[in-house]
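This part of the workshop introduces the protein records we will be handling. Getting from the letters to the tokens is the skill we practise here. An example says more than a description, so a record of this kind follows:
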Amino acid sequence: MPGLAASDNSPPAAAPPPRRLSSPLPRRAPPSPSPSTSSRAKPRKPPAAPAEADESLDNPDLGPFLLKQARDAMVSGEGGGAARALEFAERAARALERRGEGSELELAMSLHVAAAIHCGLGRHADAIPVLERAVAVVTPPPPPAEGEGEAAGENHQQQPQPEADQRGEEWSLAAFSGWMQLGDTHAMLGRMDESIACYGKGLEIQMAALGDRDPRVAETCRYLAEAHVQALQFDDAEKLCRKALEIHREHSAPASLEEASDRRLMALILDAKGDYDGALEHLVLASMTMVANGRDIEVATIDVSIGNTYLALARFDEAVFSYQKALTVLKSARGDDHPTVASVYVRLADLYHRTGRLRESKSYCENALRVYAKPAPGAAPDEIAGGLMEIAAIYEALGDLDEALKLLQRALKLLEDSPGQWSTVAGIEAQMGVLYYMIGRYADSRNSFESAVGKLRASGERKSAFFGVLLNQMGLACVQLFKIDEAAQLFEEARTVLEQECGATHPDTLGVYSNLAAIYDAMGRVEDAIEILEHVLKVREEKLGTANPDVEDEKKRLAELLKEAGRSRNRKQKSLENLFGTNLQRAKKEAGRRWSNFGFRS
């Protein structure tokens, strides 16, 4: 539809101009706001100007003319193009709103353009209400509930079609574009729950307009599946990805590129769920498709993923072969200083570390760091930051905590001001908190954890095992700082999250139970501590056996609490270190392992 489809000349932005119904665009960070435009104050108008402006808005041709001017100003970028384009778009919206009925589509387009300009200036929060107004203009109201109106009882067997269908595909396209753009903008602010809800609404509108087996629906399903992966909602992602794969296999030629893309995403999802054999099957099929289409670089990228899967399956020789094969192709195609080459170095470093060949591991880490120090032009900051995070994990495992901390600080500096990277930044801060804890800098540890927790709360990612483990680690840091009440609140919240996400018998949940029992003991709530420890001991005996060292530790702690519970007011005071027993020592030893299991990756 004219004006509502994405223009080929539109700059790639986080919330791009309204997109075609057939192809949702990828999320990309918009350019940084220009100081000259984002902070410039609007000039005051003389008293007579509003009246004259109101009269000019009555011209029925003014709205379309201003909309065209806005789009031309966006494309040209000359003479403060963004500020001029925004002014034109806002005036066009006011003029079209005054025209009333019959101008809804052009009004929506003007609002879409204004929102895209806000995003291009880095003002994503300002774009949200504009886009909400845009979708309200073109999205039909929900159909009346059964029993409403005189004819509702007569026609209850006929399900009414969405109003967008009745008004034509242009209306559906406008509504779809608005919801997807709104979802992109929420994603750039780290609000993944709101983003996914908007994408889901757009998918519903698209399926109502095109049917649920249209290839364009498959593209949106894959886009929404990627959003679920970012939110660590792998079951929902798998369902959508399977639907996209089924549609593409039905409508595309055998071994199509669309099918290969679906299989690569499916492999990522299955790998995250621990189904490595299933992931390997999809990767091999995707690689065969790319070979048949002559896509050598894509084949090399898939070879890296295949190597990762072999590594997870402990098939080390096959993993080395896949990595070396990919390394040869990427060096030839992109040069020795490209970040993708460095990423293969990192994978080889991880493999050799796992197999005990520490000299080779450190050598590959140094090779990767040389690339990241002077990357090829155009290298993405998030790609470099991701590599630094992985190298930091290897140095941490090698015991070089100071160097690991320096690498994480470099990664944080690359991403801390980037929109849409809140989850990744939270993961970096969380890992820094673990390192600070391990070297005894408990105040810095607590501050890092607090910052990470705040980001995850703001982005709506409070329902994940990672969030629960993070709360537990922050609680341990508070214990070391003798902030008992704060630690108790964190452990209690961690228990609630992990019970819901992992279950009451998961090792991480049991670890939180033990910490909570210790903090209750420190607070004088001995009966509550005994009740928790009895549950922990019962589960550990069932799962680990009575001779396990962890079971013996819990037995001793419980016996001591039961003995003390029989006393009146003569309970011997103990230090927090004794109250927590082996839990704090175990936390220091296992912190790296826990975070490698639950950490975010770009």
Observations:
- The chain is about 70% helix and 0% strand.
- The CA atoms of residues 58 and 98 lie 7 Å apart.
- The radius of gyration is 28 Å.
- Residues 1-53, 147-165, 567-579, 586-602 have pLDDT under 50 and may be disordered.
